[in-house]
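Let's practice the habit of predicting before peeking. Look at the sequence and jot down your guess about where helices and strands might fall. Then scroll down.
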Amino acid sequence: DLHLSIRRQRQMCIRDRNWSDPVNVIGGEENTRDAYKCMGLLPTEDTLYMWIRWAQRVRDPNSDRVGGGYYADWHHARTSLYSSTDGNDWSKVSELPERVRATYEAPHLTADGRLLGVASIDERSGPAMLRWPSSDPTQEPEIMPIEQPFGCKLDGGETTWYQTDNGTVVVFWRDESQSCRVWINTSPDGGDTFTSPMISDIPDAMSRNHAGRLRDGRYYLCSNANYTLHNRMHLTLLLSDDGYVFNQVYILVDDPTSMRLVGLLKEPGYMYPCCLEEENRLLVGYSVNKEDIEMGIVDLNELEPGISAHQKPVEIDRGSAAGSAAMA
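Done guessing? Here is the structure:
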């Protein structure tokens, strides 16, 4: 069983908004109705891959929403793979099968060297895992539909996963039925077959999560671990020694914040994290109010393996940098 034991919490994230100038990968033409999203990045030794989701903007003449009634028709979207060897010049190298409507996290390698990812298929009618035959992302993946048990709604395919030492793949699903819990399923054979998802006692404000493993061997889940629907004011980092029981919780960011503009599917707070370990730091990119992008920098030296919940917390220096980056 996977469960969460909240023992202590502390804010421990240095925040940075300084970014280099953006590089255009695709789009940008005037008077176009094409809309694009970056759905994930995969670095290899000499190539950077980016999954890009495309949809056409359509207009609802009866809408009074911001943007003149135009919205992206993501229910009829396609996802393509682009690559670059220098981060500046990009070219399309493949396309995901037409059944795949979205993938919200780039695939990463299983222990046997195959890429494994997540997806929403058939106009959001169901969640699925995508399994590539090798480490080559340009190959076509196998689509493995995941059963949706009664009482949950996982068809958005917003999920994340890691693999434990015994080869079990653990998958964390966002439930859009407003249970405010993370749903979990596993693959005991490294991605060949998957169990039916089940509800866990890990709280979730119905937001997107990001899971992974630190170099010291511990597992993490970065999320909005909150039992209140859409309360994304606390960005949290859950830690586990074995990948099955989370026994430490850290609050990364929880400063008061508010939206500058009201918009569709917008909520105040810190959400949609994406994590990358670099040397002795965990870099956590996240959205602020769906208006800005910040980078949280966690000093992993402060996340001592096996630290007791009764030890005195270490003081963490926090700071912020000026500037902002617009988020589409």
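How did you do? The radius of gyration is 20 Å.
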